[in-house]
What we know:
Elements: H1 2-26, H2 33-38, E1 43-57, E2 62-68, E3 74-80, E4 92-99, E5 104-112
Amino acid sequence: MKAKYIIGVAVIVGAAVFGALEFRGTMTPYVDFNEAKASQTRCQVMGEVEHGATSYETASQTLLFTIVDEDGQPLRVAYQGIMPGNFEQAESVVAKGHFDGRRFEADELLVKCPSKYQGGEV
């Protein structure tokens, strides 16, 4: 009977350790632009969209745009895929990916648009 308990505890501990390691692997840290340029791993950056510096190449489905951080530092971003439908109204963007030496290659975009529920001044 003790062997069953030992095996049960070992399975539970093993599953907990496996789950913790898998969860840690899915975490993508927020970093500033300088850290993103120096990082060798996947990270995420956030900045305001500079709409004058945006282009979308339909043939290759590549969205090229620039985001600016709170210090005014620009970062060129390339996203391969269909342009998000609300990108033109975006105030800021979170880009997840890696820096390839000349630009940030995003594999996922989170577009943050202004809220239509925001009230006006009374």
